[in-house]
């Protein structure tokens, strides 16, 4: 089936997907835009993992100022092309991530960004707590590791539960947007300002 350029353009505007992906989706779905969107989502979820190594040099710096102007966030969210950076799906994600940082106050973007001395100090505290609870030595490390995992979930942006839907993590939300738009997305950095801190 031949697909018109106008329909491809319409699907591209709705999804942010690439031209060739839109053509393939419309061909597979016999020109039905709703079915094409579903096809793109299914294909995107499988390919999101493949995109994780691709360079992300475009994007936005999003800001969020909490009502009352006592709390503010700046966050840099990157994608592969300026076209995607202008889509509603990408802008919405960036806004949601800025609100996430404001509400959940993470320390870092990803686990690897935490200084080793912070991790070591937390493990020492958790081991001491387990020892003080008279837990067997064999169990103390497992308890400490479990508490460290909980610390990561609270301190690392990508591992936090998403404030708008706590059944998903921030990483899962980002992966869903990657699947939808067909480009890699990364959170480069953020800064959180709280008046008086």
Summed up:
With 197 residues, the protein is of the alpha+beta class.
Describe the model.
With 197 residues, the chain is α+β, with helices and mostly antiparallel strands. The protein has eight helices and five strands. The strands form two sheets. The protein has a three-stranded antiparallel beta sheet with strand order 1-2-5. The protein has a two-stranded antiparallel ribbon with strand order 3-4. A hairpin with a 5-residue loop joins strand 1 (58-65) and strand 2. Helix 1 packs across helix 2 (19-28) and helix 5 (88-104) packs antiparallel against helix 8. The mean pLDDT is 87.
Number of E-type strands: 5
- Overall structural class, as computed from helix and strand content, comes to alpha+beta
Helix proportion range: 55-70%
The helix/strand series, from N terminus to C terminus, equals HHHEEHHHHEEHE
- The span between the termini is 62 Å
Low-confidence stretches: none
Molecular shape: elongated
Q: How many strands, which pairing sense, and closed or not: the largest β-sheet? A: 3 strands, antiparallel
Strand order of the largest sheet: 1-2-5
**Beta-strand percent range:** 15-25%
Total DSSP helices:
8
Average of pLDDT: 87
Radius of gyration: 21 Å
């Amino acid at each position: 089936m031949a697909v018109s350029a106008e329909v491809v353009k319409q699907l591209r505007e709705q999804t942010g997907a690439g031209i060739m992906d839109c053509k393939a989706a419309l061909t597979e779905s016999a020109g039905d835009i709703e079915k094409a969107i579903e096809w793109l989502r299914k294909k995107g979820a499988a390919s999101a993992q493949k995109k994780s190594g691709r360079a992300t040099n475009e994007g936005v710096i999003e800001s969020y100022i909490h009502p009352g102007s006592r709390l503010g966030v700046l966050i840099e969210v990157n994608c592969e092309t300026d076209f995607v950076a202008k889509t509603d799906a990408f802008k919405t994600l960036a806004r949601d991530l800025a609100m996430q940082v404001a509400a959940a106050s993470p320390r870092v973007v990803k686990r690897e960004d935490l200084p080793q001395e912070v991790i070591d100090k937390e493990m020492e505290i958790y081991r001491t707590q387990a020892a003080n609870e008279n837990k067997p030595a064999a169990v103390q490390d497992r308890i400490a590791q479990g508490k460290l995992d909980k610390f990561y979930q609270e301190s690392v942006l990508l591992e936090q539960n998403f404030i708008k839907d706590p059944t998903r993590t921030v990483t899962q939300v980002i992966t869903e947007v990657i699947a939808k738009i067909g480009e890699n997305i990364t959170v480069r950095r953020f800064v959180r300002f709280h008046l008086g801190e």
